[in-house]
Amino acid sequence: MKKIINTQPQNQLTISYWPTDICNFSCDYCFPYNLLGKYRYPKDIDKVLQGFEKLFDVYKHKRKETFKLEVSGGGEPTVWPKLGEFCKEIKNLADVEIQLVTNGSRSLRWWKKYYDCIDSVALSFHQKDVDINHYIDVADFLYDNGLEVNGVVLMDPLYWEKCVENLEYLLKNSKSWFVHTKEIIGRDYTKDQLDFLKNSFKRLADSHKLLKYLDDYNIVVKSIEMHDNTARIAKLNHYVNEGTNKWKDWKCWFPIEKIAIDTNGDIVGSCATSITNSTCNLYDNDLDIKLKNISYVTCPKLSCDCIGDTHITKEKIS
Ligand code: SF4
Ligand code: SF4
After folding, report:
1. Cβ(14) – ligand 1 distance below 6 Å
2. Ligand 1, residues 71, 102, 125, 126: which to mutate, most atoms within 8 A of Cβ?
3. Is the CB of 312 under 6 A from ligand 2?
4. Could you give the 3-state DSSP secondary structure of residue 108?
5. pLDDT at 275 over 50
6. Pocket test for ligand 2, best of 240, 247, 258 (most atoms within 8 A of CB)
7. Is 194 a domain residue?
8. Number of domains in the chain
9. Does a structural domain hold residue 247?
């Protein structure tokens, strides 16, 4: 392989924002530090919004016109009491599309209050703590109200039969939102289980919705892998699962395509899991210095462990 090309529009910047590291679930495969999470969430929402405003201005000078804001975390973002207000307010600052990554556990009343300032929701399904009927109610409500809904079912090989049973229940008793399955990194799977997971799409959305997604090519194809004389669609999970996620000394375009903001409000590279040392952490702590020179970097890391970062544009230095 000599290059990975991200298909996201060139005028778009993806920002991964982790407002909290605490969670109301306790999945044993979560990052260890999340289970000990202590940074609850930002209390001064005006300060948070001012920081984003400054960031948008800097990137607008770099010809970024739209911002894809992934609000996710090492914790559960909906435990932040100001999250709804934040989602409403930030849309007044720039052309911002909000993707919320959540376990969906907030009450239906909360979702009814804030759904209209969120564009898409990735609902992660964790079999240990989930209330499956509530999960379905939330997903159905969001789907009925026009949001893009992606159910992501974490398939734990230690509780495989229960996970399959839950998946079948979801597919039978809910509306036609997307359902994917996902492996848990670090767990061992049997060959049959891996075969089951090979095609992660377990249900596609209704055809009229699907056509909308197909029109937006980069939702379906996040990146393309270039070899000497061939090219193919990149399979993101595979790099990490197969251990081929090693791009040390390659050129990497993360400062231009995807940055991350951690629970302290600091830009920390492309992924906010700095505590595991799996992110680039190439920026120092001074915001002005961080943003002075937005350009590609030379990857200093032995491995690129965040799946979301594997599809950032990278090029081998020959
Ligand atoms: S729901 Fe997500 S953040 Fe919360 S404990 Fe489970 S894996 Fe961790
Ligand atoms: S570790 Fe950072 S610099 Fe290296 S390839 Fe991944 S995102 Fe790029």
Report:
1. no
2. 126
3. yes
4. helix
5. no
6. 247
7. yes
8. 1
9. no
**pLDDT surpasses 70 at 261:** yes
Q: Would you state the pLDDT for residue 273? A: 59
Q: Which two tokens stand for residue 237?
A: 């999970």
CA of 295 to the centre of ligand 1 (A): 33
Could you tell me if 18 and 274 are in contact, meaning their C-beta atoms sit under 8 angstroms apart? no
Which among 15, 149, 148 is positioned nearest to 72, based on CA atoms? 15
Q: Which ligand is nearest to the CA of 311?
A: 2
- The range of the structural domain enclosing residue 179 comes to 10-215+254-295
DSSP string, 124-155: EE-TTT--HHHHHHHHHHHHHTT-EEEEEEEE
pLDDT of residue 279: 54
The region of weakest confidence among 119-128, 134-143, 216-225 is 216-225
**Nearest ligand to the C-alpha atom of residue 28:** 1
Which CATH number covers residue 280?
3.20.20.70
pLDDT at 38: 65
The answer to the question of residue 33 being in a domain is yes
Q: Whose CA is nearest to atom 3 of ligand 2?
A: 299
Q: What is the pLDDT of residue 274?
A: 46
* % of the chain beyond a pLDDT of 90: 50
Q: What is the pLDDT of residue 139?
A: 98
- The mean pLDDT value of the chain amounts to 85
Phi-psi region of 205 (alpha: psi -120 to 50; beta: other; left: phi over 0): beta
Question: Is residue 226 domain-resident?
Answer: no
